[in-house]
Automatic annotation (TrEMBL):
Protein biosynthesis as UniProt keyword: yes
Similarity comment: Belongs to the RRF family.
Superkingdom assignment: Bacteria
Gene name in the database record: frr
Organism: Shimia haliotis
Name of the featured protein: Ribosome-recycling factor
């Protein structure tokens, strides 16, 4: 195997770091900011037909007004399970039921709840940073293996720099996303 054959797949590393960003965006979308959003229910799983099912697969989620989310549950027997899933989700919303429609009035956020949500957002961001760093570590391990397989010292340094720059750019994206989300949460 000659030196030119040794390639580190930075596209794969980038794709995996992008996955961590995608997961972070999904988690951020689930955090309430005082406005109703169908995304806030994405992480909620309902015990339906013997398995955990996303809420949008047991009913239609709508946002009829800025402070209200409704779920039109398709199967009347699942209304109780949907209510229970929402109450146990940690969203801090008490569902109200009218037949097969579960209504979620979104209360005003108080200062304490805003601070708590900002803390949760910071935890989500830290998970994303850890995921990005784990991908970086995998990349560095690939480089070490390639060096053992005959990669030159110069190439090794070049690849390490590239992987580090990729990591830094994603960490910066995570930090930027966190800053925006915390500003959104704290906005009254």
């Amino acid at each position: 195997m000659s030196e030119e054959d040794i390639e580190i797949d930075t596209d794969d590393l980038s794709r995996r770091m992008e996955g961590a960003m995608g997961a972070l965006k999904t988690e951020f979308a689930s955090l309430r900011t005082g406005r109703a959003s169908a995304n806030m229910l994405e992480p909620v799983m309902v015990e339906a037909y013997g398995s955990k099912t996303p809420i949008n697969q047991v009913g239609t989620v709508n946002v009829p007004e800025p402070r209200m989310v409704t779920i039109n549950v398709w199967d009347k027997s699942l209304v109780g399970a949907v209510e229970k899933a929402i109450m146990n989700s940690g969203l801090g919303i008490n569902p109200q039921t009218n037949g097969t429609i579960v209504m979620l009035p979104i209360p005003e956020l108080n200062e304490e709840r805003r601070t708590e949500l900002a803390r949760v957002a910071a935890q989500y961001a830290e998970h994303a940073r850890v995921a990005v760093r784990n991908v970086r570590r995998d990349g560095m391990d690939q480089i070490k293996k390639a060096k053992a397989a005959g990669m030159s010292e110069d190439d090794q340094k070049l690849w390490e720099t590239e992987v580090q720059e990729l990591t830094d750019s994603f960490i910066k994206q995570v930090d930027g996303a966190l800053e925006n989300k915390q500003a959104e949460i704290m906005q009254v």
